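TA notes, week 10

Several of you asked for a full example with nothing omitted. So below is the full record: structure tokens for the whole chain, then the designed sequence directly under it. When grading your own attempts, check the secondary structure regions first.
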């Protein structure tokens, strides 16, 4: 229960400061007699009882508490000027600085804790990646386990490079598998290579891949391939073992009646690396028809045969052609390409 006490001549303008400041000058202030109630009024801030030694009191239903108690609770300084009866409230920079220093320290501790957690997570991730990563040699073994045989042809797969660039070398011995290899269409070979490339990209998804299939018997390239940005195999060139006699027969069939009024016979001499084509003609029989032909007519004939042979052989094969009078045993024309690709034609 509140105890009722009388307070006489308390200044209205300074009531809230009762018990907070020292003596002050009354000046020309007005005095009144008030009825104040003291008792169990307490000041609680954040759960802490900060009731000052100067008791709060109630006047006309309004509770008055010491200003200094309130100010210092919120880290403020209070200064009293008795000559002007003025209370000045300012920030207590010392307490503010201590507060922020404390907060900074807390944040530093939190940051150090987070950095420690990040480091542990990075270490764990690195261990997981090391466990999941596949060494190039291991991948090579896996590929040989899965793709060492295709359509009755045995292959040996070798990998070189790193996770950014992988070179694939696939060996086959055509001394043992010539017939089976020849039976493989380009689409089947491409499908076989695509399966190998897909498995490599499963491990090294950003790798640039290129490769070759090699005949270990002749130490010659059979297939060269690259892989597009979309991961698709692109066969750049397929080298075939050419039967020169079959090619000769095909050319003879195609060009025998190239000039409708002149019989031509095509012969080939050499191999797939260095070859001559000879266009045989009976000059005595077709002299008039031959002489009626322009240089351009003859050059076009020889260029067509040259290109057909080049399409069947390796791009770097040496090819040279002649028109030959087999009755008088004389050359009538010659055709070849220089290293720079310029045509050289001579009519005798």
């Amino acid at each position: 229960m509140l105890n009722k006490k009388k307070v006489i001549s308390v200044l209205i303008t300074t009531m809230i400061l009762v018990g907070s400041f020292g003596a002050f000058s009354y000046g020309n202030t007005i005095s009144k007699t008030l009825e104040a109630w003291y008792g169990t009024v307490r000041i609680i801030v954040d759960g802490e009882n900060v009731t000052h030694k100067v008791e709060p009191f109630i006047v006309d239903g309004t509770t008055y508490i010491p200003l200094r108690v309130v100010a210092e609770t919120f880290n403020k300084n209070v200064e009293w000027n008795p000559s002007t009866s003025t209370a000045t409230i300012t920030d207590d920079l010392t307490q503010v600085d201590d507060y922020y220093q404390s907060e900074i320290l807390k944040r530093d501790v939190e940051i150090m804790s987070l950095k420690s957690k990040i480091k542990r997570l990075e270490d764990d991730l690195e261990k997981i990646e090391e466990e999941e990563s596949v060494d190039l040699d291991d991948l090579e073994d896996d590929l040989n386990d899965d793709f060492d045989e295709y359509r009755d042809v045995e292959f040996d797969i070798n990998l070189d490079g790193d996770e950014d660039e992988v070179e694939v070398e696939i060996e086959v011995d055509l001394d043992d598998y010539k017939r089976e290899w020849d039976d493989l269409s380009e689409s089947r070979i491409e499908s076989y290579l695509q399966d190998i490339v897909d498995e490599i990209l499963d491990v090294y998804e950003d790798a640039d891949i290129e490769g070759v299939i090699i005949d270990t018997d002749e130490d010659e390239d059979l297939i060269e391939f690259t892989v597009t940005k979309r991961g698709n195999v692109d066969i750049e060139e397929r080298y075939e073992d050419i039967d020169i006699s079959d090619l000769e027969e095909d050319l003879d069939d195609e060009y025998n009646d190239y000039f409708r009024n002149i019989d031509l016979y095509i012969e080939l001499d050499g191999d797939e690396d260095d070859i001559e084509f000879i266009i045989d003609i009976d000059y005595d029989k077709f002299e008039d028809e031959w002489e009626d032909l322009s240089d351009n007519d003859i050059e076009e004939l020889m260029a067509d045969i040259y290109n057909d042979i080049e399409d069947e052989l390796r791009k770097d094969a040496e090819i040279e052609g002649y028109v030959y009078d087999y009755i008088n045993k004389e050359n009538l024309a010659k055709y070849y390409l220089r290293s720079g690709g310029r045509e050289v034609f001579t009519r005798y």
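DSSP finds eight helices and 20 strands in the chain. Use that as a sanity check on your answer.
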